[in-house]
UniProtKB/TrEMBL annotation:
Pfam families from the UniProt entry: Hemerythrin (PF01814)
The organism's place on the tree of life at top rank: Bacteria
Official protein name in the record: Hemerythrin
InterPro entries: Hemerythrin-like
Signal peptide: none
Annotated source species: Gordoniibacillus kamchatkensis
């Protein structure tokens, strides 16, 4: 089956649920990325600390939604798929690497922002915001890969019992 044909396959409820979770996450992520791009844009503004704090709140809210989503993938879906395709190389290795990279950039953004105690000039604001923008770029591409490749692959690969296991793990059964 070609990738285009896989993407057209209907997904079982747990996989469809994971895919549906991407929409609100993407909205939050796009909103914080838009704000991150504006940080430091006005060189005449002396202090960007309040805008940085506002961005921090948006990123924290996003992470609160992202963490349970990625836990569902890492805790159940990826291990089930790894039984067929392995975990050291290939799609699961890539997905886990991207999860790690995105989470690290978000963590670095939040930790760095949290350490800023005084005024933040435009250059420093842009430097800090770059971590949030890197996470956005990684996750934008990552969600697309999951929706167009990984979830359809899982739909075709997993047995009915494994899909039922996903449903139970996700509280759907």
């Amino acid at each position: 089956m070609f990738a285009g044909e896989q993407a057209q396959a209907a997904l079982c409820e747990p996989l469809a649920g994971l895919k549906r979770e991407h929409a609100p996450l993407r909205e939050q992520m796009d909103a914080f990325a838009e704000e991150a791009r504006r940080l430091g844009s006005d060189r005449d503004q002396a202090d960007w600390s309040s805008q940085l704090a506002e961005l921090m709140h948006k990123v924290e809210a996003f992470v609160r939604g992202l963490d349970p989503h990625s836990e569902r993938e890492e805790g159940t879906l990826f291990p089930l798929m790894a039984n067929y395709i392995g975990r050291q190389v290939g799609p699961i290795a890539v997905m886990e690497y991207e999860h790690d990279q995105a989470k690290q950039n978000l963590k670095t953004f939040m930790e760095t922002t949290g350490r800023e105690t005084g005024p933040v000039d435009a250059a420093r604001a842009k430097e800090i915001a770059e971590y949030a923008l890197k996470a956005h770029a990684i996750l934008t591409d990552h969600f697309m890969k999951e929706e167009n490749v990984l979830f359809p692959m899982a739909e075709n690969m997993l047995s009915a019992e494994e899909k039922a296991q996903l449903s139970r793990a996700y509280g759907l059964a």
